[in-house]
Amino acid sequence: MFGEFCEFAHLDPQHWSADCALNIARAIEDGFPLAQLSWCTVHVLRACAKVGSYFDNPRNFENFYLALDFLTLRADATNAEKLAEESDETYEFLTTMLEEEEPRALKYFDKQWRRTKEHWMMLYRGEGDSTNNIAESHFHQLKQTFFLGKKNERIDDIVITLITVVIPNVIIKVQVANVLNEKRAVRILTRADNQIVEQRASKHDECLKLIQHILEIVESRRIEPSVLIPSLKAILNLAQRSLKEE
Question: Which domain of life is it from (predicted)?
């Protein structure tokens, strides 16, 4: 439909920016075969961060993400010769690792990234604006992606998610991406994982103490059960929904 409109209006788009969905890429390539298609780096790295289940070795997944991060976003585009050399070396390291150690991740990489590298590698895209998120945020809608699609959230819940999940994860990724020493990068990730485990253990203990305290109050018959039942039902429903989402 859009192709027909462009013909009617005598428009000839020369460059497209889109997310990394293969069906969108095929549609643009079929409709505008001479146009350049660049994939949004935000969408590329977001997609890469979600494929850890394809990897047998977590360390290989970390190296995969760092390699894609470099090839897509951090390579030096001011020097064409250096850009080509470093991109080739990084890409060869990446493909060799997948071919030798990660057969499931290799299958995913071949389908999603190997045949489309001219869309996402800075070597082919060049330096400049590499994201379409400005266009996507035009309507100022707050949205969260989850396994069934997207959902709207209360602003206070979004703020809590930003503080407890998003910002810590961003800090970890920035630390790892800026680390040249591989052992230090692994230590950062390990320390972050340990902190998450400790936080979960602390929250787990706190939950058990609260439940025990409520149980003691109910057993002592110092409070009318009807006062607690609505709140307890709400907590139970919330817990059951969380289990279903996981």
Answer: Eukaryota
